[in-house]
Amino acid sequence: MLTVTVLVEIAAVGLSWDLESRYDTLVYAVYSVTTVAAGALVASRRPENPIGWLFCVFGLVNALMADAAQGWGLRAAEQGWPGGPAAESVAVINWLPGGVGLILTFLLFPDGLLPGRRWRAVLWVGGLGFALALPGWSLSPDTSSEFVDGRNPLATNAVPTEALLLVGTTLFIAALVASAVSLIVRFRRSRGVERRQLMWFTYAACVAAVVLPLALALWNVTPVARVLAAAALTALPVAASVAILRYRLYDIDVVINRTLVYGALTFMLGAAFAATTLALGTALGSGSSWATAGATLLVAVAFRPLRARVQDAVDRRFSRARYDGRRRMSAFLDRLRAGEAAPEGVEGVLRDVLSDPQLELLFYLPESQVYVDAGGVAVEGGFPRDGREVVPIERGGQPLAIVLHDRRADEHPSLLQEVVEAGGLAIEIARLRVELRRQLSEVEGSRARIVAAANDERRRIERDLHDGAQQRLVSIGLALRHAQHELATASADRARETLDGAVAEIAVAIGELRELSRGLPPSQLDAGLAPALRELAARAPMPVHVTAPSERFDRGLEAAAYFIACEGLTNAVKHAHATHVDLRAGREDGRLVVRVADDGIGGAAPEQGSGLRGLTDRVAACGGSLQIRSELGAGTALIAELPCGS
Amino acid sequence: MRVVIAEDQVLLREGLGRLFADAGHEVVASYGDAEQVLGEVAAHAPDLVVIDVRMPPTFTDEGTRAARELKDAHPDVGVLVLSQHIETVHAVSLVALGGFGYLLKDRVLDVGEFLSTAERVARGGSALDPQVVARLVSPYDEQSPLSQLSAREREVLELVAQGLTNTGIARRLYLSERTVEAHVRHVLMKLDLPEGEDGHRRVLAVLTCLEATQPQ
Q1: Is B108 touching A (CB cutoff 8 A)?
Q2: Does A466 lie at the interface with B, CB-CB under 8 angstroms?
Q3: What's the CA gap between A366 and A395, in Å, rounded?
Q4: What is the predicted pLDDT for the residue at A150?
């Protein structure tokens, strides 16, 4: 489309050269070409956005209808070619589709969507104005001055052209002004980068909205009006280009960057090829296939380093931030390889490069599905959604980390992406290290808790022995001494009473010792898990249904399974207010699975009770996993899976 | 002898009370926790306070702390601490105060010995449980001055450390008082301790010496 437009414009300029004022010929040609060029770029980058196509279509329409048709009309009148007045008729009404193009562009710039549903009315008003003004203008005898022979071939008095034109133009201009207002509304709503992108175009649109109706009104009064109109029109694609290029609307600068790099590269390699061919040709005799081969080799060898150099040079010249960012990251990677920097420092580099001291790099841990910072501290609830930009970092389709970043208005959108890509290895290493550290600290924590639990248990047994059985034995001893004393001084009946009391005390002491030994692996475990679990169930103060295999497992495993069952039952008794418990143990897929399910109130959480926490540790120590399903009102199910090994 | 008992376990408290009563002593008050003893002991004007180490609320060392405060406030009252287990550091530092006893609970079953110890403490003497003393005396090495003592001398030393007087030692070992005096003189000489002291000051010197021989 761009090619067609350029060709049409060349023809138009050729046609109308010297037949109208030169500024007219050139300014309108530049207007069409820039519009279509901008449109083509945008359309190639964002084919889904109608703005690009709008620019293309209306640029081409303008080129064909205004410039080419007018040129043809002028040249035809000069040279006596056919179709002159017809072409002129087309050229005369050109401002109408041009105006439609402007209205649409103003309304849809930059995202291709109306700023709101109400703005649809502007389209209708504009369309109505267009429908009225088109016949009004094309059939009006007043436009005759536009024609070379001073007569509009279509002019007629059969229709009230003046009224049509008046109403149509008024509506049309109203729509134009309204669409410019829509841009202002958009501008006021926008923030940051978008605001800067819109600024230039809005400014140009406002000027156009004022100047164009004015120029239209004064069209036949002064030639200055025509110059003003052309200038205002040209300002539009220029402003759009500024938004696109300077403020990176539609990311087109990447295209330009690549074009520059590959253009320069092609030129340099071509020149090198030619020079080598020439030089070798002179040395080896022309037509030598060695010359061509040598030149090809040179070009092939030079391609990669040259491309890097050229890219570097282009970046240094045109995208300083990206150039600096990449250099800093590669310097960091060098220090990392040399062992002078820790991979976690990559966050600092990103902060530096993007000049955002609040930037956060959060690593994703797939196992626990949480985001953690470099210190391994988990971020609750995914990650903070505080309006900052969230840039995900992936590697091989797997989420690796995210960057939370407050993007500055003039920051290049792909700068972060590029720096992150360059530092991907460091980020991955940092993530692995964080994950490792976290796992290590979890293991250390669980080990410490196991040791602490064992100590607590020992202390409990010691205290129970001291305060319970031992004291009781002392008091029994005292009672016996007292009985001895009574036998010597009082009646035998008094002594018998004292002795009865001592025997009763002994019974209590035996009971206490039995209670105490509950915390130790029961002797039933010697006979296997199933008898031990049945014994456990028999002691429970509620019905417990036991399903357990007669199969024997590793002793440690059986003990772990037994304690899990104990803890589950204790839980059901103490906290769950259960009336029935289902206790199952069995081999499933090479694992010993223990399930304790009650019909109690549910709502148990491992963080709340040290019992469940200790259980989690005990299971983890066996290399197994523990699940607790405990929804409020739905009972609690405790499922431990312990690897059997065989 | 007017006795106050502080012991949280009812059975043991009653047993102790009966034990003192059977021996003709007067149990003027008994308490279930240490705080109350501190507040009310002055009103009973006791000769001896028997106090358990572990008591409410934390069941750690309430008794020991109460005993120390008791001794600070009423230096004339004998305090006998009953403990469930052998612990040297607190025991020695308390006994060094004088008029103080530290015994394992099961000593009460040897009624005669227990009562005489209690009376000694009430009179301002010292008493350290034989097992605690044994722990202080037994771990010695070649360099320790204790290695120079004969078996009999070590026996005498232990009894000195337990707080017994020469007369008490003589009775215990079925020796004449004169022989005991000779043994004690030798022991004090070998340990480089001043002679001529009896009673509490001698116990203090011996305990300090024994503490110093403890492996660090």
Answers
A1: yes
A2: yes
A3: 13
A4: 64
ipTM score assigned to the predicted complex: 0.72
Q: Which residue has the tokens 């062992």?
A: A339
pLDDT band for position A85 (50/70/90)? confident
Residues forming beta bridges with residue A349, ordered by sequence position? none
A478 closest CB neighbour out of B15, B54, B84: B15
What is the rounded CA–CA span in Å between residue B188 and residue B164? 15
**3-state secondary structure (DSSP) of residue B216:** coil
Beta-sheet pairing, B126-128 with B100-104: parallel
Give backbone dihedrals phi and psi of A245, rounded to 5 degrees, phi first.
-85, -50
Tens digits of residue pLDDT in A143-189: 666 666 666 666 666 667 777 777 887 887 888 888 888 878 887 77
**Is A581 a residue whose pLDDT tops 60?**
yes
Q: What is the three-class DSSP state of A589?
A: coil
Q: What is the mean pLDDT of chain A?
A: 78
Give per-residue burial for A50-63: e unless 16+ CB within 10 Å, then b.
Answer: bbbbbbbbbbbbbb
Cα A180 → chain centroid: 33
State whether residue A460 is helix, strand or coil.
Answer: helix
Planar angle of CA A252, A255, A259, nearest 5 degrees: 145
Interface test with A, best of B7, B13, B87, B105 (most A CBs within 10 A): B105
pLDDT confidence band for B49 (50 / 70 / 90): very high
Per-residue pLDDT band at B215 (split at 50, 70, 90) = low
CA angle, residues A535, A538, A541, in degrees to nearest 5 = 140
Q: Which residue of B has its CA nearest to A489?
A: B22
CB–CB of B157/B206 below 8 Å?
yes
**B23 C-beta neighbours (distance < 10 Å), count:** 17
Element (H, E) at A582: strand A581-588
Interface test with B, best of A460, A462, A481, A487 (most B CBs within 10 A): A481
Q: Which residue type does A122 have? A: V
d(CA A208, CA A190): 21
Q: Which of B84, B105, B111 sits opposite A481 (nearest CB)?
A: B111
Q: Would you call A467 an interface residue with chain B, using a CB distance cutoff of 8 Å?
A: yes
pLDDT over 60 (residue A586): yes
Q: Within a 13 Å sphere around the CA of A614, how many CA atoms are in the beta-carbon half?
A: 18
Helix residue ranges, H only, A113-222? 120-138, 161-189, 192-217
Task: Tell me the nearest-neighbour CA distance from B11 into chain A, angstroms.
Answer: 6
Tell me the mean pLDDT in the region A397-414: 76
Asked if A471 reaches chain B (Cβ–Cβ under 8 Å), the answer is yes
A506/A503 Cα distance (integer angstroms): 5
- Type of residue at A352: D
Alpha helices per DSSP H over chain B: 10-22, 34-44, 62-73, 88-95, 111-122, 130-137, 151-161, 166-173, 177-190, 200-213
Measure the CA–CA gap between B127 and A478, rounded to whole angstroms. Answer: 21
Specify the higher pLDDT residue, A100 or A588: A588
Which pLDDT value is given to residue A584?
93
d(CA B26, CA B28): 6
Closest CA to A112 of A17, A41, A47: A47
List pLDDT tens digits, range B101-152. 999 888 888 888 899 999 999 988 888 888 888 877 765 556 677 778 888 8
The pTM of this model reads 0.43
pLDDT band at B50 (very low <50, low <70, confident <90, very high): very high
**In angstroms, what separates the C-alpha of B181 from chain A's closest C-alpha?**
35
